[in-house]
Specification:
This protein is mainly beta. It contains two helices and eleven strands; from the N terminus they run ββββββββββααβ. The protein has a domain at about 30-115: Sandwich (Jelly Rolls).
Length: about 150
């Protein structure tokens, strides 16, 4: 996909790029901006949803928590984050994101550079088979790790 130049302006609340909204792994992602250098999305994680441990090989990823609390695995260590916290996940570092709070979590994610993540989200929107998500992700520079036994 050719990424268009970043336009100046205000992306209004509850709107996304091209009015898109994706359902990914039980969460709702609303893309807020897209450029070659970065990509951001507002995410709502219902209680009990998560993103399993994975690695971005070509991007740094960030989460700014607006509401709720996450439990995280960052480079093999467990930690927590709450409203106002910024989570930094450098490329090549394993991370997993879990909403075990019993309440929805609302946050802003972004990655830099965009690389193939936009295309990945387009392809895994509404994919119900986790194995298919893992297969598609591998072709887009994201590696999901096998579950711990």
């Amino acid at each position: 996909m050719t990424i268009p130049a970043l336009p100046a302006g205000v992306r209004r609340a509850n709107t996304g790029v091209d009015d898109l909204s994706w359902s990914i792994l039980g969460q709702t992602y609303v893309p807020k901006h897209l450029s070659e250098s970065s990509f951001s999305w507002h995410a709502t994680f219902p209680a009990g949803t998560f993103v399993p441990p994975h690695i971005h090989h070509t991007q740094d990823e960030f989460i700014y928590l607006l509401e709720g609390n996450f439990e995280l695995i960052l480079d093999g260590k467990e930690t927590k984050a709450g409203p106002g916290d910024l989570v930094c996940m450098p490329r090549g570092i394993m991370h997993g994101i879990f909403n075990k709070s019993g309440q929805p979590v609302k946050c802003l994610f972004w990655v830099s550079p965009t690389a193939k993540l936009w295309d990945l989200f387009q392809k895994i929107h509404n994919v119900g088979d986790p194995e298919e998500v893992v297969r598609i992700a591998a072709a887009h520079e994201v590696t999901f790790l096998p579950p711990e036994k």
